[in-house]
Design a protein that fits this description.
Four copies of one chain form a homotetramer. Chain A is an alpha+beta fold and 363 residues long. Helix content of chain A is 26%, strand content 22%. The first copy, chain A, is built from eight helices and 18 strands. Chain A has helices at residues 37-47, 107-113, 131-147, 174-180, 190-205, 233-241, 263-266, 338-359, and strands at residues 4-5, 10-14, 21-27, 64-68, 70-71, 74-75, 80-85, 151-159, 162-163, 212-219, 247-252, 270-272, 278-280, 288-289, 292-293, 298-304, 313-317, 324-328. In chain A, strand 1 and strand 2 (10-14) form a beta hairpin. The longest helix of chain A has 22 residues, at 338-359. The relative contact order of chain A is 0.18.
């Protein structure tokens, strides 16, 4: 129980920061879907570290190798497994973490759960590196969705309190989604990005880090995908998004804002467009009613905590002596993980939507 | 796929607002656990409507009948199924909803998904009434948790923008949790409650409704319960909480607030208490690191949208004519669902934690 | 973990021999399916005891009450739950079984697993009575299958070594299946039935019991339903059929007979019928190749052990004293369960096939 | 849905006969378990082809590479993934199978299910080669079981109608199980093996194949592992064993033999051994009552059909022309798969028992 997900499209993610390889197995993909490998690489490049000063300077080629499931670039219907070899590893950086767990990290909880047998190097299976196979899987799912008229895009909605312009929830715009979904550090308002950079750089210079928020939109969804109660669209997306390291909050549509609204404000008035299709004037529901898509854009936001690994000295405990200790985390870390988290959130959305459609017989 | 949940403790919820009965089946409960039926009734009474002006005046006795799984009040280890007969039904109130779907409700999405065969009366399986069996299940789980030293309590954190005093995340206080978990409309600050009442009453008089927020805390958890990635504590709680009708947002610990913090602020400094136990000075993590409990209180908040069924006239579509229409929802509805949602959120927390412990071999 | 089953069509069975009620919840049924309640009652009557001397004289009305999931006799797409109240209970008969477990029964294993908290009355959750909700569920599934051209029927293939004529595996005959699937104690050769009766009566007079075998066929299946490896048609059927009490063996097509065959005998030669459809001359595969249906009749056989509860004195252990003991099982038991098991096996086949089609997008 | 299995210990198998690699991911293994890699290789060698004339002359090194999940030879608790690169591939041998499906094979059913997109080379994902990762997984599980006093062994119970001496079901003998579980083509009676060889050789010379049966025993199991109904020990084992290509039948304990027995013969008399432990004089139950282990040896038999790929000319259909055709399968195939199937059956038993213990909190 941990890193396996899904009922129709089953995804298993494996590996750790410093294991021989990491990877993902996708079982239950539809057969006959042509996969553009270049696009997979583009998505993985968006997540790769070392692109600017918000991220670690560590270089990871992140070259996925497909072991099976594709024949001449087309899905066979059999499990599709891909691995990414780990190459850039400085194992020595992490030795002291076995004794002095990092505050804000899973070092201590994993140590208890696994009786000290977990792989501490680079965070092991808890490493953000495990989002690379998730992005791989999402890039597969995205191509299947696009073929069905569905677009998925996200942007950095905020860093360190600096907000980007939010999506127009009623119509995020397909072109905008397409543009964002191909960029590193995508924002809607370029000026916001500059102010975000300043915040990140200020934190970096102080050996600190900053958090942020990612907003994601999905357009082109059919009406009727999803389920009531525990297999609803929100539940399904949440089950993946809370699997992304550092996510501490998730909201759909008007989200936490609904708590201050009246029903007459929050209910989205319904109408028919020129083609007779049912639409809503506003989209506080974020495209989901009763766990089921209503055909409006699906919009959600995820909050990311600041990178836990910081260079400042921190109070921790000593697992060897049973006492306390001071920790200064060494190694290369991202002062802000949020720009690299954007393609990860998109990937989670792509996989969740693919599963949602499969569960609803709409694939 | 919809109303079944869990891997170790499997829960299936069934029924609709106007079906003969609603109920829940719990498969995989530990054997030999004495169940206090009075406490179950107390929890169900907290959720029952008609207790004050925030809620519908509809009266539902909500008397659960245990069909199996208990022998002389003790769990046998076999599935425990309980049903609640529906008695107070005014089916006539809902006839027009089959034609004019309510904005903000699942009427339209269910109509598409089920090809018009869904039970529209009272919202059918999408009714908030389905939270009654959830509260029943939670009351069972809560007793098993208490026996293991775990307390669960929640309060109305906000209504219509009026906040209650939040929990002290480092120590919510067992007595406070016990008190809250036995009250209807529980708050920490009584003065806040008065101001909330005013907001609800104002909305009610305008045939409108208001939303709010529930904050929940769990104390006494062991360290090491949970899993990385997709079966983490957050994912598990989210998979239940987003199954509660009207929830549009969920956050853990400092939640969305983390997006504006620095790592040095957000990381919870670790220390040892007088007994040598590992603790943290702050609790921005909400008791969860890497999907695994760290022994600190688990704290989360859920945002509830305002009740969708309001007496004000709303724009909708006409499913019969293919055109548009105007809707005035009749019947008895809650101007604010949040007070009644508190025991539901607690129930979800109890069940999620029971499953979490079972999955981790800690039950 | 125990009495919940299925990924697309989820079935939860609950109750015990002497609980207030037993029942079943079906989650994930297609919406809009008209259900003939008379046919459900007919199937349940086939399983009911007291019909002849092969069975216990206990009378159980077995009147299922649908709590939800049907609206005017049509599935709504929401969970369909039905319960059967237990009325004919002689609890006193079972008191000594808590101390002296019955050989061949789950009394001892359940006592260990549940720490003595299990409901021993009538076998509790291990009772053959739990097959009543299974038959109910099967009768629902059967009607959905019939609408799609699929017929399911079974017969008593053997009792106490006396064989019935087997199905023609290439063409069991739709009329024969329809006939068998409406009868109590269905056989193909009436003369075999007489000889079976003699064997059962001889055992009954000696306070003993006899075992037997049920053969089941499914015709009208589409090609391509099923999956490789662990979700194959055989696996799925096995996961249900081994859930029927007393089943100790299961074989498909030529079954154990394949172990003595050559490939040239066992491989079913392929040809095209007058309509160009792919068929096989023989059907040693039992309609399944690589876990996937090939369009030929699906044929399987299940072996049932003789009823464990017999009136003869047996050696057992004393769980109270830690010593040994002698047991004479009292109460009313079936000298042969096999005739009543036929509709249960058919029900398992119906549910398994419904799930198989749902998983394969063929429903 | 297909090649993923398990609730506590989740196994995903991937790859095809001619893909770059095949492999298995195990999620949910206990942490801190030392793994002897030599023993894994020994088990894989038992399954490898080319060892004698019963098997294909194809050589496959079957060298597994562990990608993650082990740290210095000890399980970390994170997913353990291993791959085996495919090296000996003669893809040209299979070209005509895309047009002329092999009788007795999944060629036709997969062609329909996957719309012709499946990988036909070497049977693709339906290849017996996929049992290599299963054996790898079983070798991991076996070491965990051995540490808990559990032994698993199997033998060729029959080939082409020639039987081996069966296990003593009451006491198969730990030494015998240990011996069998290290051998290629293990039998209890060496003379039987000679007669089996003759049958296989006779078939081979006629370009034909023969079937057989494998009997497996598990000793040292605790009492109380398993569940009633659908997650019983039989169901769990069946869900894996029917995933082994060519298995068409499965029976536990006295198996199909029970159908001719009386209850007084079949019920296993209970007694206490010198240590006061509950035992049975016979073991017709095969160690399982009500789906739960009773502490006696778990014994089951699986029937294997003769290898479908034979050199004799066979009738088939032409998928290109819509007509019929004749097929002579070329390539290197096993005249009898049964000797190589023994370690596969043991592996399935090891994994099923590990899951059974995990589900029952007995790991």
């Amino acid at each position: 129980m941990s890193s396996s997900w899904g009922q129709c499209v089953k995804m298993s993610i494996f590996g750790g920061s410093h294991t021989k390889a990491i990877g993902v197995n996708l079982d239950g993909l539809p057969a006959g879907e042509a996969i553009d490998f270049e696009e997979i690489l583009l998505q993985m490049a968006r997540r790769a570290p070392g692109q600017d000063k918000t991220a670690t300077t560590r270089k990871e080629p992140d070259a996925p190798q497909v072991l099976c499931g594709l024949l001449e670039g087309v899905t066979t219907g059999a499990p599709l497994c891909a691995i990414i070899e780990n190459t850039s590893q400085r194992s020595g950086d992490y030795e002291n973490l076995r004794v002095l767990p990092r505050p804000g990290h899973a070092d201590y909880t994993a140590w208890v759960k696994y009786g000290g047998h977990n792989d501490i190097r680079g965070g092991g299976h808890f490493s953000g590196r495990l989002t690379a196979p998730l992005v791989f899987a999402g890039a597969i799912a995205r191509q299947m969705l696009r073929r069905r008229g569905i677009a998925v895009g996200a942007h950095v909605a905020a860093i360190a309190g600096v907000p980007d312009t939010p999506f127009d929830p009623v119509d995020p715009g397909r072109e905008l989604l397409e543009r964002l979904s191909r960029e590193y550090f995508p924002v809607i308002d370029p000026a916001a990005k500059e102010r975000m950079y300043e915040k990140v750089e200020a934190a970096r210079l102080e050996a600190d880090s900053v958090g942020g928020m990612v907003e994601c939109a999905v357009t082109g969804l059919p009406v009727g995908a999803g389920n009531p109660m525990f297999d609803g669209a929100e539940n399904l997306i949440a089950s993946l998004v809370f699997g992304i390291p550092a996510v501490k909050g998730l909201e759909f549509g008007a989200g936490f804002g609904v708590s201050a609204l009246r029903g007459s404000q929050n209910n989205d008035p319904m109408y028919r467009d020129e083609n007779g299709h049912v639409k809503t004037r506003t989209n506080n529901a974020g495209g989901i009613l009763g766990g089921i898509t209503n055909g409006m854009p699906l919009v959600f936001r995820a909050a990311f905590k600041p990178t836990s690994s910081i260079g400042k000295e921190q109070d921790t405990v000593d697992l060897r002596t049973g006492g306390e200790g001071k920790l200064v985390v060494k190694g290369r870390h991202d002062p802000c993980i949020v720009p690299r988290a954007v393609p990860v959130v998109e990937a989670a959305a792509c996989i969740a939507v693919l599963e949602l459609l499969a569960q609803s017989g709409l694939l």
